[in-house]
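Lab notebook, bench 4. The sequencing result for the construct came back, and we need a structural model before the next group meeting so we can plan mutations. Quick request posted to the team channel:

Model the 3D structure of this chain.
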Amino acid sequence: MANVLQYLIRSAERFPDKCAVTDDLRSYTYAEFCHLTRAIGSGLLPLTRPRRAVGVYLPKNAQAVAAFFGIQWAGCFYSVLNTELPGNRLRQIAQTLAPAVIVTCEALLPQAKEIFPICPLVCLETLAGQAVDAEALASVQARAIDTDPLYVNFTSGSTGVPKGIVVCSRSVTDFIDCFTALFSITEQDVIANQAPFDFDVSVKDIYSAMKVGATLAVVPRELFSAPVQLMDFLCEKQATTLIWAVSALCLITGFHALDYKTPESLQKILFSGEVMPLRALKEFRKHLPDVCYVNLYGPTEITCNCTYHILEKDRDYASGIPIGIPFPNEDVFLLDGEDRLITAPDTEGEICVRGTALALGYYRCPEQNSAHFVQNPLNPDYPERIYRTGDLGKYNAYGEIVFLARKDSQIKHMGHRIELGEIETALSAVPGIRRGCCLYEHKTQKIVAIYEGSTEQKALTEALKEKLPNYMLPNRYVPLEEMPINLNGKIDRTLLKHQYIKEN
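Done. Here's the predicted structure in token form:
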């Protein structure tokens, strides 16, 4: 056995009666949780074969976490089909994924049948009721190797089609082993999960907890619209660790929720996804001065994170918080426009990564693989893949990496990595829209849709809701009688940016 199941087995042996996973409705001890995952795995065995994709269309709760491990027991890899996403987007993902089966629940079965009419479906309740076939599970695991896929996370694609990133077990276990050691995550911790399960921030929550025997507390999604209740939940669960997107932390400070109640049990707050506003950081530090704060950086393609910076209490971050230094066993470096290594401070270059943390690549997308997972230009002697992030950075005077900007049209918005091209594709497909483009206003963190056509804004918004998740919906609409065109016959984005985007 060479996968994350080792984490679960060891923790179940050490802490059988300790709470492993809890949500607002149920809790499982490690012994109960381990048995449940083995039952799910046993139930899946007749429905698939090893190294096949299994979709997970379940609410964000403790049972969904059990499904992930059950799928591993069956020798397969999972891909979360987020129930909050529009049906059209889910169908796109399912078409690319071609899962052997989709795990859902009785409450969502009618909806799943409508969205995935040609995919085999099975209810979690059915799987959970299966007898554990220990011999069959052992036989499957005997053939498992650590480069087998663990999950596929779908992110925004520049062509309008979501692209799946395949991450193997070895990448996750290598990262989690370092992650838990660096930040002293132990069996004493209660990790409050914020991120959706199709967002790789959740990978750190789930597998860190299982690695050390901590408790994973799955925060109900609706609490992020009710900051007061969110504080009550964190206090009730005695949360010690938050590994959250910056946007979620800003929600707390924006509503002054810490003034209502401060979770005094918190010891560690690790954040990622976008730049942490200093105002929000100061608000947290005012209420929780003794907490360890960590800035994390890294795209999904390198398994969660590749750099980190532990914030210093007496340091002035007025010029911004660096993304820091590489994690152990990950090499993060900067290349200039001619693929030369940058070592001098204050010299801009593309952030590149090498090591076992790299994803296997994009699922059924060879052209994207060849563009982003490439031979290391610094190594002419033997095959060595690196991942070109498309992010620009520099070294500061401390030798830390500082994030600067994106090289292309990809942005970070509300903690999510988004291709503006995907929004443009959806925009242009709306009846009455002749052409359109999307820009991002970094100052206000708003997606701006600029379009030529007769469609009313309300109707346009409703049409986009059918195709895009909420976090990809434009924040501002600009109708034009005619789009400006450059000399190449393309939309003059430079002119539009100058006219409609506030940079300062």
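The chain has three domains: 1-168+194-218, 327-406, 410-500.
Will bring this to the meeting.
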